[in-house]
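Materials and Methods. Structural model of 7-carboxy-7-deazaguanine synthase. The 230-residue sequence of 7-carboxy-7-deazaguanine synthase from Stigmatella erecta was retrieved and submitted for structure prediction as follows.
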Amino acid sequence: MLALRPRIEPHRSPAIDSVMVKELYLSVQGESSHAGLLCAFVRLTGCHLRCTYCDSTFAFRGGTRMTNAQVVQEVKAMRTPMVEITGGEPLLQPGVYPLMEALLAEGLKVLLETSGAIDVRLVPPEVHKIVDIKTPSSGESDRNDLRNFQSMNARDELKFVIGSREDYEWSKALIAEHALATKPFGMLFSTVFSKLHPRELAEWVIDDRLPVRFQLQLHKYMWDPEARGV
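The predicted structure was written out as tokens:
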């Protein structure tokens, strides 16, 4: 009789009205078209990917179980009109969907930072989705869910984190193959911090006239890249 290998499940919340929160803080948005704006951040615990350039491995486990109502209360106390839900991979927790609805109901602008490995079709359309498609140097590019190209709308942005010329050429080919320049969402190009000089990436984008927004991770230049809660 064949012995079955145990199946390792990613972190999932058992309750629909709560989430496991790693950290909750107020800062300045460091990325996307919202960069520079005051923003509350809700970082959820757990991720099923192990990207080589991950900067939030501390969020893989641990944290505090909070009801969605508690999270909303904490965010409102920060007195900012914008909140980002990030991780880890926040879409692994079922409670995140009603949490997004609850934050929207309070009149907040809600951003979601998510990997490209989960289809975002169930995310409320009013949420501004920042979908981080995985490039080859991440080691997880085979996990991308390309259905996201049909699930994203004009509020959303597709983020490419570039760590090498190979990543850049791969991303450029993907944009051409799927005609992403004709899609309603925006596209963001940034570098893997300390792996590729931003000037190199900017010059490649200029040379190829790519229809993308070049960006820096502002928070990593303003604060210690290893710091939390910023």
